[in-house]
Amino acid sequence: MGGVAEVKGGLPVRRVIMLGAPGSGKGTQALHLAESLAVPAISTGEMLREAVAAGSELGARVEGVMAAGALVADDLMGEVVASRLERDDVRAGFILDGYPRTTGQAETLDGILARAGVKIERVLLLEVPEAELIRRALGRGRADDREEVIRERLRVYREKTEPLISFYRERGLLATVDGYQPVATVTAALIAALGAD
Ligand code: AP5
Q1: Tens digit of pLDDT for each residue in 123-154?
Q2: Is the shortest distance between the CB of 99 and ligand 1 below 6 Å?
Q3: Is the pTM of this model over 0.70?
């Protein structure tokens, strides 16, 4: 079920960015899409949390920033993502979850992909009402899911990440999906959006 052959509209796109506010379901849906498209889901938030848990130098640099709901510096994120996208498993594609988050990061990503001779093929935006975003995060209880930190992450999203919506819309890459529906319904809508021209 859900294999590549079932994606509608001819050849499936496999270099995909998930965009959306904290709690909109990017991570959840990235895993489902990764399975359907047989490509890896790459979550920068997850990579950073693993670095913190491992007590690495990277973890030490980002722990306080993440706990405050702020963004890790673009240069550092560029290094993290560039080294991840050098691995063999992304040759056929990837679902990026949580990167890019600023226009600077989007430009860095363009450069990384251009060196590999590939491009982003679709940007999937999940739209969810703010009250639901907060409800979901509070229900989950991650270290940065305290209400004041969630509100700061939302504020940072509006200020720094939302400009990417028009950035990618102008390039004809954006597809918007209602993320305020059951998980399986959202997944089906995202797969349909990947197949659409
Ligand atoms: P990151 O891990 O990317 O966090 P986020 O963007 O705040 O996203 P979340 O993980 O909170 O939400 P999500 O949209 O993935 O939703 P999820 O599927 O988990 O980043 C964390 C931090 O790392 C940042 O604040 C920053 O400090 C740093 N960072 C990461 N990337 C960075 C970058 N590029 N630049 C700089 N700093 C960076 O779902 C949320 C909850 O809702 C779950 O419990 C889930 O089960 C539930 N849920 C999902 N879908 C549904 C549904 N349809 N119905 C009901 N519940 C649902």
Answers
A1: 999 999 999 999 999 999 888 999 999 999 99
A2: yes
A3: yes
Residue 119 alpha carbon to ligand 1 centre in Å: 24
Q: Please name the amino acid found at residue 82.
A: A
Residue 124 Cβ inside 6 Å of ligand 1? The answer reads no
Lowest mean pLDDT among 9-23, 86-100, 166-180: 9-23
pLDDT reported for residue 141: 85
Closest CA to 18 of 1, 33, 35, 2: 33
List domains and CATH numbers for the chain: 14-195 (3.40.50.300)
Which stretches does DSSP call E strand in the chain? 15-20, 41-43, 94-97, 122-127, 174-178
Which atom of ligand 1 is nearest the CA belonging to 101?
Answer: 34
CB-based contact 153:45 (threshold 8 Å): no
Structure-block tokens of residue 72: 């890790």
**What's the CA-to-centroid distance between 10 and ligand 1, angstroms?**
30
Q: Kindly give the distance from the C-alpha atom of residue 25 to the centroid of ligand 1, in angstroms, as a whole number.
A: 7
